[in-house]
């Protein structure tokens, strides 16, 4: 599987703490192995993000993505629950 990162995700990633960056990499690797691993809480979104999915990075940090095809996903947003959904 191939993961593409939107420029906003790259920008937000640079602002993460060292532990959040490490966790992001761990969850990305877990996602590559099994996108529906229970730790990721992979779920479909509604509202403004209709058609997208979200995974948990930390207790409050989320990554929103869309499936472009069977082998490619595009992470479009990275932020806390409040930043993304309110």
Write the layout of secondary structure elements.
Elements: E1 2-5, H1 7-14, H2 18-33, E2 43-44, E3 53-56, E4 61-69, E5 72-80, H3 81-85
Parallel strand pairs: 1-5
Antiparallel strand pairs: 2-3, 3-4, 4-5
The SS-based structural class is alpha+beta
Order of helices and strands: EHHEEEEH
Q: What spatial form do the alpha-carbon principal axes imply?
A: globular
Report the sheet with the most strands, covering strand number, pairing sense and barrel closure. 5 strands, mixed
Mean pLDDT score, rounded? Answer: 96
Distance between the termini: 31 Å
Could you name the ranges where pLDDT drops below 50 across 5 or more consecutive residues?
none
- Helical content stands at 25-40%
Strand order of the largest sheet: 1-5-4-3-2
Radius of gyration: 12 Å
Describe the structure.
There is one protein chain. With 86 residues, this protein is of the alpha+beta class. 34% of the residues lie in helices and 33% in strands. The protein has 3 helices and 5 strands. It has helices spanning 7-14, 18-33, 81-85; strands at 2-5, 43-44, 53-56, 61-69, 72-80. Strands 1-5-4-3-2 form a 5-stranded mixed β-sheet. A hairpin with a 4-residue loop joins β3 (53-56) and β4 (61-69). The longest helix is centred in the N-terminal third of the chain and has 16 residues, at 18-33. The mean pLDDT is 96.
């Amino acid at each position: 599987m191939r993961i593409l990162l939107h420029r906003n995700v790259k920008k937000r990633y640079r602002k993460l703490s060292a532990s959040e960056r490490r966790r992001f990499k761990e969850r990305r690797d877990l996602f590559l192995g099994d996108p529906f691993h229970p730790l990721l809480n992979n779920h479909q979104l509604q509202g403004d993000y209709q058609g997208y999915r979200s995974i948990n990075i930390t207790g409050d940090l989320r990554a929103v993505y869309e499936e472009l095809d069977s082998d490619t996903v595009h992470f479009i947003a990275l932020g806390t629950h409040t930043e993304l959904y309110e």
